[in-house]
Amino acid sequence: MINNFTNNNLFIILTLSHIILISFALLIIFFKDKISSYFLIIDYPDSSLKIHQLPTPRLGGLVLFSYVLPALLLNFTIYPMVYKNLITTLTIFIIFFFVGLIDDQKSLTANKKSLILLITLLISISISNELIINQINFKNLSLAINLGQFAIFFSIFSIFALYNAFNFSDGINGVAPSLGIFWIIFVIIKSENYINFYYQSILISLIIILYFNIKKKIFLGNSGANLYAIIISLILIQEYKKNNIFCDEIFFLLFLPGIDMIRLTIQRIYSGNSPFLGDNKHLHHLIANLIKEKYVFATYIIISVMPILIYSFLIQNFYFVFAFSVTKYFAIFFLLTKLRKIN
Question: pTM for the full model?
Answer without folding.
Answer: 0.92
